[in-house]
Amino acid sequence: MSDGPWLVVGLGNPGDRYAGNRHNVGQMVLDELAARAGASFGARVGSLGRRPQATAVEVRMGTRPGGVPGPRVLLAKPTTYMNESGGPVAGLARYLDVPPERVVMVHDELDIPFADVRLKKGGGEGGHNGLRDTTKALGTKDYVRVRVGVGRPPGRMDPADYVLRDFGAAERKELPWLVDRAADAVEAVVLEGLEAAQQRFHTKA
Q1: For an engineered disulfide with 70, which of 6, 62, 91, 92 has Cβ 3.0 to 4.6 Å away?
Q2: What does DSSP assign to residue 43?
Q3: Which whole-number Å values give the CA distances from 48 to 26, 94, 135, in the listed order?
Q4: What are the residue positions of the site described as Discriminates between blocked and unblocked aminoacyl-tRNA (predicted)?
Q5: Which is it for the CA torsion 87, 40, 104, 106, positive or negative?
């Protein structure tokens, strides 16, 4: 795979009010990836062109044979609301000269059962406002998505209300495992390529 740089974005809404919501699981995965690299999200990115609104940290992901550091990866969490995610993503991609195939969006997915992780490139946004705005801003659907399953809402609950609620008590017990698995999936995409990562994460044990 290319040395990059890669742009990995965790979608969510800003502020403590939303931090534990299902809609913010993408940002939870980014926190895990930063922790694995011994890094932390610092000051808001504000000097890149039109001031992309995000917090970001650059890391080296993985290690090659001989102890050589892996590809450069910018981990970014937009500080805009979900439906305005596209501007920060497109701004960072332009500044870093990252093509769509090296943009990885990590996000919640209603159409995947809780605790499952699926990977794809391109395709529809499935009603996800963060993805819809990203597609519009990038001018293409051909970026990589790491889809973190949160499941469908129970009964007749509005899906918008469901994703803006915190994970339930039973889910929270499994949440660290899910976040860890999604972080593994991001690393697999960067280090092994999308097809190899799909074979691993789409295969039932």
Answers
A1: 62
A2: S
A3: 23, 9, 20
A4: 13
A5: negative
pLDDT tens digit string along 111-140? 999 999 999 999 988 889 999 999 999 999
Residues 17/27, Cβ–Cβ less than 8 Å: no
Half-sphere exposure of residue 180: CA atoms within 13 angstroms, side-chain side: 5
| Helices marked H in 103-147 | 129-138
81 is in an annotated binding site: yes
Strands (E), 79-116: 103-109
User: Which positions are catalytic?
Assistant: 23
All residues at 6 or more sequence positions from 15 whose CB lies less than 8 Å from its CB, including other chains:
none
Over residues 189-202, the pLDDT tens digits come to 999 999 999 999 99
Which percentage of the chain shows pLDDT scores above 70? 92
Q: Which residues are CB-contacts of 197 (< 8 A; sequence separation ≥ 6)?
A: 119, 185, 188, 189
Burial degree of 82 (CB within 10 A; 0-12, 13-18, 19+)? buried
Q: Which amino acid is at 200?
A: R
Q: 24 labelled as ligand-binding?
A: no
Predicted TM-score (pTM) of this structure: 0.92
Query: Can you tell me the distance from the alpha carbon of 13 to that of 72, in angstroms, rounded to the nearest whole number?
Result: 26
Residue 28 Cα to chain centre, angstroms: 9
